[in-house]
Amino acid sequence: MFGCMKVSMRISMSPGIQTPVTKTQYPEASVRKKNEKAVAVQGSHLLHPGERTNSEGKPVVNAILLTMPDNEFQAVRPHLQFTDLPQRARLHEANQKLEDVYFLNSGMVSLVFTTRSGESVEVGVVGNEGFTPVPIASGFRRSPHHAVMQIAGEGFKVSANVLESLLPSSPALHTMLHRYAAVHGLQVAQTAGCNRLHDLEQRLSRWLLLTQDRVGSGLLRITHDFLATMLGTDRPSVSLAAGVLQRKKIIEYAHGSVKILNRKKLETSACECYSLIQQFNGELALR
Q1: What pLDDT, on a 0 to 100 scale, did the predictor assign at position 48?
Q2: What distances in angstroms separate CA 256 from CA 148, 220, 251, one per listed residue?
C-alpha cells in the first residue's frame, strides 16, 4: 500500500554526543542547537520547530507532526489539543482502552510494566521524536504498559478515534507511525535484555543518556525513588550506582535532580545497549 510513498524524515536523536562535556561545560546549548535543526518535508520545504501550529496558534515541535506533508497536517491540525504534561501525569493505563494519542513537544514519557505483585520497571521511553501509545499505529486499542510523564513537558493530544479515521487518507502519516512503532519495538526488546543482563551502573548511564537526548538538557529533574522504579530496583541500589558516577565526576546528584557533567565519560560507562538503541533510532530516516 505504501510502496511508492517517499517521505524525507530527518530526526536528530543524539544531541551533544560529539562534544565532551566538562564540569563547567554543560550540554544544553549544543543539544538545543541540534534539536532546532530543520526537518525536511518531501525534500522540498524546510520546517523548523514552531513553524507549524495547531488551530490555536500553539507551536509544533514534535518531529512527526513537523515531517508529515502539508495536506495531511492540515487535516489533523484542527484536532490537535495543546496540553501541559506535568511530571508523573499518567497518559494511559495498562490493559485499558486507549482513548487519546499524544505527540510530545517536550518532556519524556516512560512506558512502564507492572507485575501483579506491584513491581515496576521501565521498558521504553518516548520524547518529541515520536508518539504514545504506540499500539495505536497498528490498530490496537490496549497496551500492556502504562505511560507516565518522567520529565514534565507539553504536547498535543488527539482522539484515538479521530486519528484512526484520518489514517486511510493520510498514507505518509500512516507510514511514519508504523515505522516509529517498529523502531520503538526494537528499543523495548533491547531494554528488556539490558535490564536482565547488565549491571545497574551501566543501566543508569544508558537511562541518563536516553533521557538527555529527549529533553535537551544536562539537568534532569528526577528522584532516586523514581529512578529505582524505572530501573526495576531499590533506592539504595540506585544511590550506590549514582554515587559511583558522582565520584568519577560524570554526574552530580542533588536532591530531586541529576546533572550530567561529562557526557563522553557517561557514554563510556553505559553498556552497548545505548549505541544499539541509537542505531534503531537512525532507522527512522527515510530515503
Answers
A1: 73
A2: 17, 9, 13
Closest CA to 266 of 206, 195, 187, 216: 206
- Tell me, rounded to whole angstroms, the distance of Cα 97 from its chain centroid: 22
Q: What is the pLDDT of residue 17?
A: 36
Distance CA 139, CA 161 (A): 10
Residue 251's CB: how many other CB atoms inside 10 A?
Answer: 24
**pLDDT-derived band of residue 51, with 50, 70 and 90 as boundaries?**
confident
Report the alpha-carbon distance of residue 176 to residue 14 in Å, rounded: 19
| pLDDT at residue 43 is higher than 80 | no
How far apart are the C-alpha atoms of 69 and 81, rounded to whole Å? 19
**Position 163, amino acid:** L
- DSSP letters, 152-215, are EEEEEEEEHHHHHHHGGG-HHHHHHHHHHHHHHHHHHHHHHHHHHHS-HHHHHHHHHHHHHHHH
CA atoms within 13 A on the CB side of 77: 18
Residues 6+ apart with CB under 8 A from 127: 104, 107, 108, 109, 213, 214, 215
E strands, the chain, where?
Answer: 39-41, 45-47, 81-85, 90-92, 100-114, 120-126, 146-159, 219-220, 251-254, 257-260
Show Cβ contacts of residue 22 under 8 Å, excluding neighbours closer than 6 positions: 261, 262
Q: What values do phi and psi take at 159, rounded to 5? A: -60, 135
- Cell 561529562 found at: 262
| Cell of residue 40, nine digits | 525536511
pLDDT at 228: 85
Q: What is the DSSP letter of 60?
A: P
Residue 66: CB partners within 8 Å, gap ≥ 6?
39, 41, 47, 49, 51, 52, 60
Positive or negative torsion for Cα 27, 279, 183, 201: negative
